[in-house]
Amino acid sequence: MIATERNLARIKIAYEVIGDDAGESIEENFDSIWSNPPFHSGFSLSTTVLNKFLKSSKNLLNPNGKCLFVVNKFIPIEKLASNYFKTIEILNKNNSFKVVLLSD
Which DSSP category does 63 fall into? Predict the structure, then answer.
């Protein structure tokens, strides 16, 4: 979270970094949510954690809000996110990661 704070401070936008269990105890809503969620449980690939982040993000967004997720390229976030979001757009990708914008 320290690296996140430093990076956001550099780009000079209003932000709040919140450490939580996928947003389960957060009671406010947001215009944007940026996330780089974990995708494994121990050494095994798990979509359960990512689904938890996607569902919480959907519930925490204001109307017309947007989520920005950074995930490893091989993670099927597009398929999983379609359960929660109408619009799924890959903004950027390289050999390792992809940046995905989610909204309704």
Answer: E
C-alpha–C-alpha distance, residues 26 and 51, integer Å? 17
Which residue reads 């970094």 in tokens? Answer: 17
Query: CA geometry: angle at 37 spanning 24 and 73, to 5°?
Result: 150
Q: Say what the pTM is.
A: 0.80
Nearest to 37 by CA among 54, 12, 25, 17: 54
Closest CA to 71 of 104, 55, 44, 94: 94
pLDDT digits (tens, 9 = 90+) for 41-95: 555 677 788 899 999 999 999 999 999 999 999 999 999 999 999 999 999 999 9
Q: CA angle, corner 20, sides to 49 and 32, nearest 5?
A: 85
Q: What share of the chain is helix, strand, coil (3-state, %, to 5)?
A: 30, 35, 40
